[in-house]
Amino acid sequence: MRWICWLGELLFPEKCVLCGALLERGHQDLCKTCRIEAPWHPNHKYKPQFLDSFTAVWYYEGYVRKSLLRFKFYNARGNARSYGRLLAMKLLTAYPEGFDLLTWVPVSSLRKLRRGYDQVEQLAKAVGEELGMKPVSLLRKIRHNPAQSGISDPAARKANVQGVYRVKDPGAVAGKRILLLDDILTTGATAGEAGRTLLGAGAKEVHCAVIAAARKESHHYVSVFQRPGR
Which pLDDT band, with edges at 50, 70 and 90, does 155 fall under? Predict the structure, then answer.
């Protein structure tokens, strides 16, 4: 069956999940340049409101941002496999004690219908496969609110997501240490509201993990990821 694998590699060569460059044999998910120059998020945990901590793989900028926009809006569902592997490696380092449940921040039914998929659900499946955990749908979005990406004011973003989630089965979350996945964290309003909802239903802890987070520092990352035209 080697010829089938060879033909598959020829027709569908592996590409870097960030910049799209063809990967050299033996490489997976990222090219050499992106492994070195991607804006990696530091391996420590913050504690936004209503979350016990959060961690991320990268900062949300440059090729990372472009890659996530393709994943979220342009049907690049295959990116979930690479994101899942990279995020799982980060989680195993940051949280060696593990979790009781793995879940995700859901999109509304209408948004899922229009888009054709829930991108964070795809991510949860990929992360779960790497961690040996089956993702559980704990939250339901009960209101189709405007997209957070169109709102810049932090207070307005917080108000926009207030009360939009409900826990499907409070008994399933009571006393549990939960890993909550999302794709991007900017102000933390969306993940924080999801965390508040889970804690209100009796969860013991809620820790959030994302593919990328907005940089809070005033300085900017300087690398190939910010060169014009790349």
Answer: confident
